[in-house]
Amino acid sequence: MLDIFTIGADVLRGKAAPIEKFDDELNALVEKMFETMKLGKGVGLAGPQVGVAQRIFVMQIDGDKPRVFINPEIVETSVELSTFEEGCLSIPGVYADLDRPALIRVQAWNERGRRFVLGADGFLARVIQHELDHLDGVLFTDRLPERSRDRLLKQYEKRMRA
Ligand code: NI
Q1: Residue 135's closest CA among 92, 81, 73?
Q2: Taking phi first (over 0 means left), then psi (-120 to 50 degrees means alpha), and beta for anything else, what does residue 158 get?
Q3: 140 C-alpha to ligand 1 centroid (Å)
Q4: Do 90 and 12 contact (CB within 8 A), yes or no?
Q5: CB within 10 Å: which end of the chain, N or C, has fewer?
């Protein structure tokens, strides 16, 4: 299992670099990321969360297959928003409702270097947007109104001291 970096770590705040080589090393990373995600009981995990400042995330939601997104880019978003409760392995133990576009279209490459375009809605669209934010140094708490963000981060710090 890889170490999961938590809020406060610099690697979570940078802009991750594009992946250029689709090789065995990348495939080993993908495997370790899935393993770490499952042990952490998460539904998604991005490179920076395991200290890898590269544009990659893995995810698997209930009833769906494991998915790998490399150099992802959201190419379309709906005006319509939806609300989901979000949490993050890098801010363990706290959750908050957050609005984001309900539908997205994302372009990415898989671990074999094959490009794909995926239209997503519901929880799938939600996890993709959350994970993609990690590649740009953005945490879900950044997107909350200031007051709820402060409340959540205080709650988190309290948990960490306990
Ligand atoms: Ni996260």
Answers
A1: 73
A2: alpha
A3: 7
A4: yes
A5: C
Q: What token pair was written down for 31?
A: 């495997």
Ligand 1 centroid vs 125 CA: distance in angstroms? Answer: 14
Q: In the structure, what pLDDT confidence band is assigned to residue 106 with cuts at 50, 70 and 90?
A: very high
Please identify every residue annotated as catalytic: 131
Give the Cα separation of 74 and 135 in Å (integer). 12
Q: How far is the CA of 28 from the centre of ligand 1 (A)?
A: 21
CA distance 79 to 85: 19
The tokens for 45 are 């995990």
The answer to whether the pTM exceeds 0.90 is: yes
Query: Residue 150 above 90 pLDDT?
Result: yes
The full set of domain ranges for the chain reads 10-161
Neighbours of 15 (CB within 10 A): 11
Cα(111) to centroid(ligand 1), Å: 20
CATH of 10-161, one of 3.90.1150.10, 3.90.45.10, 3.50.50.60, 3.60.110.10: 3.90.45.10
How far apart (Å, rounded) are the C-alpha atoms in residues 108 and 118?
Answer: 8
Distance of CA 131 from the midpoint of ligand 1 (Å): 6
